[in-house]
Amino acid sequence: MKTLKDFRIEWVKATTLGFMSLLLMIPMSFIFARFFLPPRFDGLNIPEIFKILSSSSEFNLQIYITNQISHFILYLIVGTILAHLQYQVLKKYISNKLVWTGLTILGLELILLGDLIYVGLSTGGAPGPLEPLLIGIGGGGLIALMQFLYLRSAGIKNGKWVGYWILGIVTGIIASIPFIMLYEMIISEKLKSLLSPMALLFTEWMSFILPYFTLIGLFTGLFSSKPLYRAIEQIQLNEDKDI
């Protein structure tokens, strides 16, 4: 069995890179906004489209459906990436990679149910910081729950790591706030005169999504690695005793 230090490094890499794959939200949102919105947006560039969407309170079914489809595809990709990276660390205890991946994806896809609460919004998504909170706390927490159920079936019954995983999510969100505020309060104004509207929009999204999900992934891995390692270690000790 690998050492705690080696396990922690591998686990933190897996969770950090897995959550960082949510950066795919940016190109996917731009693609869906450019090609799959109603005809009234024809002729507008992407920054103009998002400016209208963010300022409008009018509900549009096509926009809502488009938004949900783009999120469904995003969570499918991100869940697959995260599950694969984690599988590389836990492959000895995961007998069915397909089920492991499916449960991880399911944890994220269940966020879409939360979006239904905000069905009256023009974009069909949660406003302001609520959508990333749904992804971070809701999706992240549900991923841990689904994975715990799988690992429990594999004999790893100690679920203490799930609590530390959720604590890592909360810590990551809090840790990202200074970086996000630094951009909003100081850097953004200086960039408005230097960047094109498209480059500015991309930078604004990156300034939030990159620190937010990177730090969530970092702290979930960091906090949950030791209790998960101890849970696995206990299984190994029990197997050695049986021998």
Automatic annotation (TrEMBL):
UniProt keyword terms in alphabetical order: Membrane, Transmembrane, Transmembrane helix
Bilayer-crossing regions: 12-37, 69-87, 99-121, 133-151, 163-185, 205-223
Top-rank taxon: Bacteria
Annotated protein name in UniProt: DUF4386 family protein
